[in-house]
Amino acid sequence: MSGPAEFLKLAKQCFQIADALGTLEQRSSLLTMAQVWLDLAAEAEQLTKLVQEADTAFEVRASEIVRAAPLWATDLAQKSA
Fold first, then answer.
1. Burial 25-54 (b: 16+ CB within 10 A, else e)
2. 30 and 19 in contact (C-beta within 8 Å)?
3. What domain range includes position 8?
4. What is this structure's pTM?
């Protein structure tokens, strides 16, 4: 899956092509596409941040569970890893 950097690159390309084209209709279409790429970049950035926060929360919660687990459970977890 592409990330924010790739979406920003595509938006930049749309802006560059729009600058080179002559008709208003073509430029308008490319500027609309550029805006969509910018929106996708922002959404991808937000999703990446949410996933990182969830991963961090899960790691903290998992470490709490392991600390509170009975000794035999931690022994089994270590043997299966």
1. eebeebbebbeebbebbeebeeeeeeeeee
2. no
3. 4-80
4. 0.66
